[in-house]
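hey can u check if this looks right to u? its 489 residues, i copy pasted from the old doc so theres a chance i mangled smth
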Amino acid sequence: MSAVAELRPLLERLRATCIANGAPADLVADLDRLAWRLDQPLIVALAGKVKAGKSTLLNALIGEELAPTDAGECTQVVTVYRNGHTYRVSIELTDGTSRQVSFRRDGGALEIDFGSTPLEQVAKIIVDWPSSRLVGMTLIDTPGLDSIARDTSDRTHAFLGTDDDGGGEADAVIYLMRHVHRTDLGFLEAFHDEAQAGASPISAIAVLSRADEVGACRIDAMVSAQRIADSWRRDPRLRRLVQTVVPVAGLVAQMGATLREDEYRALATIAALPRAEADALLLTTDRFVDDLSCQVTQLDREELLDRLGVFGVRLCISLIRLGAAPSATALATELANRSGVVAFRNLLTTVLTERRDVLKARVALSGMDAALTKLPAPVFDPIRNELERIQASAHEFEEVYLLNAVRSGVMNFRQAEIEELERLLGSIGAPRHVRLGVGPDTSEAEMHRLILDGVERWRRRSENPMTALELAGAARSVARTYEGLLSVP
């Protein structure tokens, strides 16, 4: 039985015991919220500094331009985007009430009408939007962490539980950054705090955002961005705080999902210009916008630049010239692939969605533990003991703790063992061949042999009298993980 399946009835038992013994109403409400979260899709928040590209990346992940991305601080209120049966926008107010509001959308981002409600009284915006991309994952757009208006940043800290009060509402976080700055590390440290529900390296992914701007927006910018992301991934400061680091060109990704036929025709017109003329036009943003001889209107060129950025325009022209994008559909596919968003979506499925039960269970475990610390009465002791038993016996928790220990350097494994554990534990949810470090064409018999070899090696490691006690326990856990792969298709 999974940890989630064991925790759900225990949570209901705790709630009933609280009601029967007159526990505070707000504590019962917290338990109700916890039970509701167990049955929800994975709740993933996008966080980062102002203009890090959160809204742009969110649009690219959903595949529609919903969140505003204009200049300035677009996201001033935590905004929830979730799958719904109908198109609806509602707001939750700071006084605890909520109401549905009107909105409009003319082929672009949503424009929400708050009516007479001041923005400072809006605690959260909830957008219900029918989308297959939101079925398994609810996405949250959060205000920038270094906003000029401190109240705006405080909303993000409160939602994610990185303020002094804790109790965040996200199961995982995608953190966008352009440099490894100490304020970014500080936020990830706070999110990683074991006091926070579900917080661990497996519940955080770092994104090198606006990756197309690396290397002066050259056509090979994404190659340079990938090298930077690889170096960040090896950085011990980040390695213990996030699952991985990936580069994404947000504007290019968003354009791949929202490219229009008229935009393709404009790009094709520029690509058809004589090579020297087109290259001169693409040399700087001023030349691209101000050239009076171009057949594409200045207004259209300005819009292309806003929608794609310099790198995106250069990439589109190059792809059309080379014949790799003979249509708007082909260009959109190329942009999505080259922006990094397709690989990123696959990564989210592997390292977050496939770990939904583990992440949800950690949230429930932490929330119930926090509630029980406020309930010292002996009547709650049996529940407390059962919770400790689940925490101690659930193998998925052991795997998370072991991965944390490996990445933080707490356990002194050999380098080859660390690399093996990173692959085995760091890619939970991935196909067996990925976790075993072999190709997809590896035979079933060979994979079976590798699994049994892993079980035997780690059992011997645990039974070796020269192995430290802590490492021996970890080795037994690794052997169990290998055994679990025998039942994975």
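The first strand starts at residue 42 and ends at 48.
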